[in-house]
Write a structure and sequence with these properties.
This protein is of the alpha+beta class. The chain folds into 6 domains: 175 residues; 124 residues, Sandwich (Immunoglobulin-like), CATH 2.60.40.150; 131 residues, C2 domain (Immunoglobulin-like, Sandwich); 122 residues, Sandwich (Immunoglobulin-like); 110 residues, Immunoglobulin-like (Sandwich), CATH 2.60.40; 123 residues, C2 domain (Immunoglobulin-like). The chain contains 19 helices and 54 strands. Strands 8, 13, 16, 17, 18, 23, 26 and 27 form an 8-stranded antiparallel beta sheet that branches. Strands 1, 2, 3, 4, 5, 6 and 7 form a 7-stranded antiparallel beta sheet that branches. Strands 38, 39, 42, 45 and 46 form a 5-stranded antiparallel beta sheet that branches. The N terminus and C terminus are likely disordered. Belongs to the extended synaptotagmin family. One of its GO terms (cellular component) is plasma membrane. It comes from Rhinolophus ferrumequinum. InterPro entries: C2_dom, C2_domain_sf, C2C_KIAA1228, Ext_Synaptotagmin_C2A, Ext_Synaptotagmin_C2B, Extended_Synaptotagmin, SMP_LBD, Synaptotagmin_SMP.
Length: 1114
Amino acid sequence: MERSPGDGSSPSPVDQPSAPSDPSDQPPAVHTKPDLSSENQPTGPGAAGEALAVLTSFGRRLLVLVPVYLAGAMGLSVGFVLFGLALYLGWRRVRDEKERSLRVARQLLDDEERLTAKTLYMSHRELPAWVSFPDVEKAEWLNKIVAQVWPFLGQYMEKLLAETVAPAVRGSNPHLQTFTFTRVELGEKPLRILGVKVHPGQKKEQILLDLNISYVGDVQIDVEVKKYFCKAGVKGMQLHGVLRVILEPLIGDIPIVGAVSMFFIRRPTLDINWTGMTNLLDIPGLSSLSDTMIMDSIAAILVLPNRLLVPLVPDLHDVAQLRSPLPRGIIRIHLLAARGLSSKDKYVKGLIEGKSDPYALVRVGTQTFCSRVIDEELNPQWGETYEVIVHEVPGQEVEVEVFDKDPDKDDFLGRMKLDVGKVLQAGVLDDWFPLQGGQGQVHLRLEWLSLLPDAEKLEQVLQWNRGVSSRPEPPSAAILVVYLDRAQDLPIVTSEFYSPQLKKGNKEPNPMVQLSIQDVTRESKAVYSTNSPVWEEAFRFFLQDPQSQELDVQVKDDSRALTLGALTLPLARLLTASELTLDQWFQLSSSGTNSRLYMKLVMRILYLDSSEVHFPAVPGTPGAGDLDRESLMTGSSVDAPPRPCHTTPDSHFGTENVLRIHVLEAQDLIAKDRFLGGLVKGKSDPYVKLKLAGRSFRSRVVREDLNPRWNEVFEVIVTSIPGQELMVEVFDKDLDKDDFLGRCKVSLTAVLNTGFLDEWLTLEDVPSGRLHLRLERLTPRPSAAELEEVLRVNSLIQTQKSAELAAALLSVYVERAEDLPLRKGTKPPSPYAVITVGDTSHKTKTVSQTAAPTWDESASFLIRKPNIESLELQVRGEGTGTLGSLSLPVSELLGADRLCLDRWFTLNNGQGQLLLRAQLGILVSQHSGVEAHSHSHSYSSSSLSEEPELWGGLPQTTSSAPELRQRLTHGDSPLEAPAGPLGQVKLTVWYYSEERKLVSIVHSCRALRQNGRDPPDPYVSLWLLPDKNRGTKRKTSQKKRTLNPEFNERFEWELPLDEALRRKLDVSVKSNSSFMSRERELLGKMQLDLAEIDLSQGAAQWYDLTVDRDKGSS
């Protein structure tokens, strides 16, 4: 076989001495030397050729001096020249190494059998697989077929790149409109298959092959962007790896095989020789970076868990499951310790031998974990646990590499590899494994977790996991695989969401999906310009407790700014489903009426089926709690003594009350303003300052009034400590110094004992003035049943000048943390915790130099919106930043027993746990002035009186959070749409006697009429008849493209009660006809005679919308 001229001069196994053999077997390089020398002779006349060669050589060397001359002419430092020279030498070195590697690999593949026979002394790595492994067969016949097909494959590639790829590149960017492939040649060196291994007995309906492939090609692909005179390309490539090919399912019809799936079990090795502008990628640093990026792209398609599936028959069943099959199992890897490691640290130029700072890398396929660093230790103890998904048995390996941590380059201490098939056979494998390439051993405990398709053993697994100490992550009880298939009828958005400069109009979205379970989020690809996308992707999640966790699905535009639909699915639903599987359409909320998502969700329980492990009995069954310590120790690592499961706060925790201070009005204040040098007496601009429990509040300023009315509410958390006083001071607001208008003190003893105080208080230290205060003690109640009424009352008595009233009190007790990350991987931090709810924060003390701090501190927070707010906690180190964080939605407490959670929480960074108690108390006012809401009203048949309404769009408190979410979505279901042909509007109308105001709250509409192709843009307009003018008109905001808008907006009219009873409230639901037109489309209206309703109740009701001039009924 012919060789290139360079092959004979490069060092290779052929040039090394070997045993005597037949002369015909001598390396071809020996015979080609005369040809090489003859080829190097000048082709023209002797003297002229030699002169031309000398001049050419001289010119090239002269060009090297040009950068030096330019640097001197421009006054640049010689460092620029040296840097450029170093860069060139590095590039030249990488380039030569790649060319040498290509030559050797080509020479080896050209005559594999002869070289294998002559160079048996070669390293084991260089031998083909069929030499090393007797069950790997040499498939030379297959290589001959590939060689025959190779030129035609090259023609196909040239056509594909020129007719498909090039136009796509040109259309992707205006700057690439002149992009073209100038040369596409796959070369004469075809892909070779060095060995084939067939795995028998895996499944009857599949054939499994492993192909050991090697491509050392002289491929040449050149591209050019003519506009910028830019040329680049590839000249030569190496790719080596094991490609697994699975033929399944086998069917009883032609072509017998239903589909072919292929993938690399491990990342293949890649080496590319660049040309043109891409020569820069051969610069040291960029070379490895570019190869890594290309390999990442290949891995995203062809390396486990990704597969390339080629269906061979139409309408193949379960294509998604063939593309992403369920894992074979889970391996729980306990990285326990190592011993006898080699010492790599040297001091005083190697005269003094130190130790090592070891850490370990654990790999299974593309799953990689890094342990913490143990300083100055040759026998480290890690005690860490990792869980990995196993897709293929046999084939995948558990690989552990141990390194010594150094400031520059980490030193290699050794590695071990173990086929996952051995773990499957053993069930539990606990052993010391020798490290190859170094000295020492590593201690691993490997547990094979089977995937069970029923929930029978879930309680057993959860009980076992509670007694297991695992870091950096808690042990998982189940795995969830989500097959995301497609969506239908997603809402079409207007172009204003993308760019304000675009003309308004409909635009197909570019939908993608975010799937989240707790703090783990996966994202699908984006499908462009469609409202019925098809994804066909699979996602996998580890579950710690499937009974309480939820899958949150957000369908978004690819900009992530626009939500096209949402879905929250409690995973407890799968526990009651057949084979823990849901395969169906799911209706999307906050989306179109017909928008839905098709998914297949498969849950599997992780069960350790081994005689070595004895699961503890489930509580409540005979023998529970009788498990001895020895049986515990045979499972995963367990702390001794066991850590506490619950907090132990002192007796005063959670006993706080909330004092609601209502500053109503004042009378007979003194006048402090003077004009014209005091000749003209003015009034005052009074405001109130309150001080209590270390906090201060300030009312608004009322201009020019000696009898001001503030009507503001302030809330403060108080304890039962005796002797507390509320300090009240009144001031006159001035440009320079505010004038004093009086003070008074209120002892809290009577308020805390009786619960209520409503008094006029005389102002002290001034000639006249008195202040009207109302104080109420709110005692938290651990029951969520009253939350709906509290939110309703707060919405009615809320004043426009005050902050939103609190509905609950959250008490938090932080006891301790464990397993916090070490500072710089070596030293323990000095941690403290910051607890935040809304804009209120509490910082604990700092505990010095420990990864397991004990704080024993508590804090309380006012909660205004329990369905929205969350508790945010950060653990920080003094001078080291954030060590971990925790986010706990307050809504989770609504579903907890007595509104309390008391347990260990895992920090979001995956390392560290926190023992915390959070309890919620509902604040019920007994003196709000609002009558208790009764559900005995008489509704019309169209108002669905049996429906458990959610007032004001706020969450209905039920016994559990999943029920809460289910009822919220249930209320919007089209199955419960009202009977009225034009829809309904939900209103609260109430007279606030304290403020002498008529209050109306527009909550929402439902089942509005759709006249055109697109849904309307509704808003609600209110008139207080008979005065149909701007003074009595109120209008809500406008909602885009919906038949079920949510407003929750409050409006007020100041008028006496007797006048309000003579009025009628006119309510119209309208929609903008178009952006350019002022015309409004009437969707429906109703009139409410205020004399016919009870204005003291403040109840939310649905009212039927009718045509013009008709009243609505409720």
